[in-house]
Specification:
With 330 residues, the protein is of the alpha/beta class. The protein has 13 helices and 12 strands. The strands form 2 sheets. Strands 2-1-3-4-5-11 form a 6-stranded parallel beta sheet, sandwiched between helices. A 6-stranded mixed beta sheet has the order 7-6-8-9-10-12, sandwiched between helices. The protein is elongated. The termini are far apart.
């Protein structure tokens, strides 16, 4: 069975998918040197174009690929809501792809490009920079537009939509310090997330400016694991404030603290970092940074439509506003 795709041809010939399609459908529109190179690669690989590939002359499938990691996260679901609403407005279909492990990167990228989507929204904030580079290089090699949606990276040339996480964490920590808290823990995740690195940096900046001692703990979203850790922290340390990288972790910490008799926020102030449904459903209601995840999804999708249609774009790196939502725990 021949599993060679148009992606393989484009990659080997170092041209875009559209160029391969033109060679197959309108060869007279392709420079002779390029046409010969592509045809040689097709012959070498034994590529057999299917009906979809032959329909790519216009390079329009009106489909966008969305690459995510863990779709169970509340913030991912809300971001997808913003993406889907704008996609529907501009008559684009959405195809979801998941990269759960580093081992999935190569195969997933092949699937994305083989589907011949018009562009990609990249939501996965778990990959190390080395593997993120693979994603960028693969998509750029086939001239596929990409937008980082709530992903922090060192790729300044990739269009990005998000918030200033470092500033948000700095402001939240400073707010807690202004309320008289001096032993503030930052509770992050054991799994690496690019945005959480920025949150830690903001926390550390505020702590340093106040000449306080930084205290960072890492845990998982599994309550069977994090609750014993939280009990140990509260039993063995002087602590009057806690900021969690996620609302779900903050609520878990809050529940343990209340069970142990802590008065909130008199004895212990607690804050989260997303303003998801967990923050509003917790008792007392959780204070947190409001992250406009729906808007991030919507703005990312609109930016991608401009890139896919070669429309003029004024700004390629968009930082949306954030806010501190003060409820009953701060």
């Amino acid at each position: 069975m021949n599993n060679i795709t148009i992606y393989d041809v484009a990659s080997r010939a170092k041209v875009s998918l559209a160029t391969v399609s033109r060679v197959l459908n309108n060869p007279e529109k392709v420079k002779e040197e390029t046409r010969i190179r592509v045809l040689n690669v097709i012959d070498q690989l034994g590529y057999r174009p299917n009906a979809i590939a032959r329909g790519l002359a216009s390079r329009k499938t009106t489909t966008v690929g969305v690459i995510v990691s863990d779709m169970t996260r509340a913030s991912i679901a809300e971001t997808l809501g913003g993406i889907c609403d704008i996609a529907k407005k501009y008559k684009y279909a959405i195809k979801l792809f998941s990269i759960m492990r580093v081992e999935d990167v190569e195969d997933t990228l092949k699937d994305v490009i083989a589907e011949q989507v018009d562009g990609v929204l990249y939501l996965n904030d778990e990959l190390e920079e080395e593997n993120l580079k693979k994603v960028v290089e693969n998509l750029k090699s086939v001239r596929m537009p990409i937008v980082f949606c709530n992903v922090v990276s060192d790729f300044s040339n990739i269009p990005t939509v998000g918030i200033n996480y470092e500033l948000a964490a700095y402001e939240l920590t400073k707010k807690m310090i202004e309320k008289g808290k001096k032993n503030i823990y930052f509770i992050s995740t054991t799994r690496k997330y690019s945005v959480n690195d920025k949150k830690e940096q903001g926390y550390l900046r505020a702590i340093s400016e106040a000449n306080l001692e930084p205290k960072i703990e890492r845990t998982t979203g599994d309550t069977e694991i994090n609750q014993p850790l939280f009990r140990y922290i509260l039993d063995n340390n002087k602590i009057d404030g806690a900021i969690a990288a996620r609302d779900s972790i903050a609520v878990s910490f809050l529940n343990v603290a209340r069970f142990m008799g802590k008065r909130i926020p008199e004895d212990l102030a607690v804050a989260g970092f997303q303003n998801t449904r967990y923050a509003k459903l917790s008792r007392p209601m959780l204070s947190c940074i409001h992250l406009p995840v729906y808007d991030i999804g919507a703005v990312s999708m609109r930016l991608l439509t401009k890139l896919m249609n070669d429309e003029e774009t004024v700004e390629l790196n968009i930082m949306l506003p954030h806010a501190i939502v003060e409820r009953e725990t701060l």
